[in-house]
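Box 4.2: Ligand-aware structure prediction
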Amino acid sequence: MSDIQKNMHVFPWGHERRFNAYSNHFRKIYGGRIQKVSVNAGFTCPNRDGTKGTGGCTFCNNDAFHPSYCHHDKSVTRQIEEGIEFHKKRYRRAFSYLAYFQAYSNTYAPLDKLKKLYGEALMHPAIIGLIIGTRPDCIDEQKLEYLEELSQRCYLTVEFGIESCYDKTLRRINRGHSFDDAVRAVRLTAERGINTGAHFIFGLPGETREEMLSEAEIISGLPLKIVKFHQLQIIKGTAMEAEFMSDPAEFHLFKWDEYLDFFISFLERLTPEIVVERFTGEAPPRFLHNSIWDKKRSDQIVNLIEKRLEELDTWQGRLYPGTS
Ligand code: SF4
C-alpha cells in the first residue's frame, strides 16, 4: 500500500473497507444498494438426473439454500414479487434487484427455455439484471453467445459452483467434473466479457489447511470477478452426513476462532482484483447436522472479520505477489 493510500485509508478497490466488498462493487456501478431475489425456475442438475450421476454432490441438499418464497411451482414473476416484498422488510434501502437463478443448474436446459425464463425475470420493472448459478459442465458456445449478448443489455454474472481446486476432493464429493472443467468454463465465459462468479467450500474432507490456503493463489489466477466462500456445514439427510457419522475423524469442521484465523490468512493471499461476496455460509439451523459458531449470523461474521483485519492492520491481497 502506498503512503497516499495509507493516509487516505483507501485500498486498491477504491474504498476504506479492508476487503474488496460486494456491496461496494454495486455501489460503484449503480450508486446504491442492489439486492438479489432468488428464483427456483425448476431446473435439475446433470449430477442428479443420471447424465453425470444420480446421487448429486455429497454435501448437497438444495432446500437448505433457498429462501422460503422460492419454489418452482410459482412463476418466475411471482417469486420475484414475493422476494422483493421479503427483502423490503429487511433492507429498506435496496432500490433495484437482481434475479438470482439459484436452485440446481440454471443453464441446464435448451436455449429457448433459458431465454423464456431469463426474459420473464428481466420483464419485471424492478429487475436490472441476472445472476445465473450453474455447473462448469452446463454451458456451451451457443449458450455463451446468447449470454454475451444478454450481458450487453443488462447486468449479468454467471456463477459457477467450483467448490475445490483439487480433483481428489472433487472426486470424493462426487462433483462429476474436474477442476480443469471449471477453469475452462470460467475462461470461456470471461473471454466473452461476461462477469464470472465462483463458489468454494473450505473444510472439505481430505484437504489440509495448507492446501486450502494455496487455493488463494490458484483462484487469483482465474479470470473471476466475484467469489463466495463457505465453511463446510454438514447438512441433514445428505450423503456427506452419513459419511461424517461413520468416520468423523476424516472431517475438519472449523471452529470459529480457527476459521477467523484461516480466513484472514486466505484473504491476505487473494488478489485484490477479485470481489468477495461471502466469507461464510449460513444454512438454516433446522438443516444442520450440528449447529456451530453460537449461531453467528453472516452480518456479525463480516463485522468480526473486518474488526480482526483492522486489529492486525492487514487487508485482502497484502501478501499477494506484486501487491505493495
Ligand atoms: S450442488 Fe449443484 S451440482 Fe451438486 S448435486 Fe447439488 S445442484 Fe447438482
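In the box above, the bound molecule is iron/sulfur cluster. The first strand starts at residue 34 and ends at 39.
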